[in-house]
Amino acid sequence: MRFYLDCIPCIMRYAVSTVRLATDNPEKQGNTIRQVLQELAKIDYENYAPAVMRTIEKIIKQECHCADPYKDMKKQFNQGMLELYPYLEKAVQESPNPFEQAIRYAASANIIDFGIINNLTLELAKKTLAENARMPLRFNTAEELAEDVQKAQKILYLADNSGEIVVDKLLLSRLPREKITFAVKGSPICNDATMEDAEMAGITKLVRVIDTGYALPGTIPEFCSPEFQQEFAEADLVIAKGQGNFETLSELKNKKIYFIFKAKCNVVTSYLNCDLNDIILKKSSV
To answer: Which residues pair with 137 in a beta bridge?
Structure first.
């Protein structure tokens, strides 16, 4: 799905939040936002919103001399979810359908998205997981995913955000791990997970982990490293976490993809004809 007018205020909120994390110098903050506004005036509406976010964050990092504005917040949410994980695992084990419950929690954890929810707290993330514990999955079923997982030979699991990837372990541990390659971002972008986050979350002890070779809050395969492009091409099933991956991959043809995320903005809910805060399990149209 491409860029919409309604993406502009969301990206500006993201820019202001990011520049405040990158520097506490008011003059530098103001000058950086001026440059962001100049860049937004040149928007290509055929582009993806996550690609525009990459350009905006690149400006902020360069102007504020800050390589990873979200570094401390990513560690905080990784640690918070690690502390919560034993309770989530117990709830999954006690569920009538553990696989479905693992998907439900993995989708709910997509609330940890500072690109959209700039004022998110750890307490709100935990509350969301609790409130969504019995929420129905929209569009496709856990049984459909399980059937396609069984048929697949190679599965590529596209990670989204720090903190969220801890909760992904609930699902990863219920998949055939020998089939799984887990992909994180090539370098810091927003609060998206990198290899450092995968190591902190314990993902590297579960499955093979690679990075995309690129920093984007979504996935555009042609921009990624040759290694990732090969993994993407060879995978006969892709599990794509997060709204950014839906935005960049939802119209890709000839690829079996299951999108797992929480619908967090009106652009996506209108596109999907669903409600705000729905938890989504949606199979691509191959």
So the answer is: 279
For the chain, give every domain's residue range: 7-64, 71-283
Nearest CA-CA partner of 262 in 157, 174, 131? 131
In the 8-state DSSP scheme, what is residue 193? Answer: -
Residues in a beta bridge with 180: 155
Residues 111/117, Cβ–Cβ less than 8 Å:
yes
Q: Output 120-127 pairs: Cβ under 8 A, ≥24 positions apart.
A: 122/76, 122/77, 122/80, 125/77, 125/80, 125/81, 125/163, 126/80, 126/84
What order do you get walking across the sheet with 155-158 strand by strand? 137-139, 279-283, 257-262, 237-241, 155-158, 180-184, 208-211
Nearest partner of 232 among 251, 249, 216, judged by Cα: 249
Range 71-283 has CATH code 3.40.50.10880 = yes
Instruction: Check: CB of residue 179 under 8 Å from CB of residue 209.
Output: no
pLDDT by 10-residue block (mean), the chain, 286 residues:
92 96 98 97 93 96 97 97 98 98 98 92 96 96 98 98 98 98 98 98 98 97 97 98 97 95 96 97 90
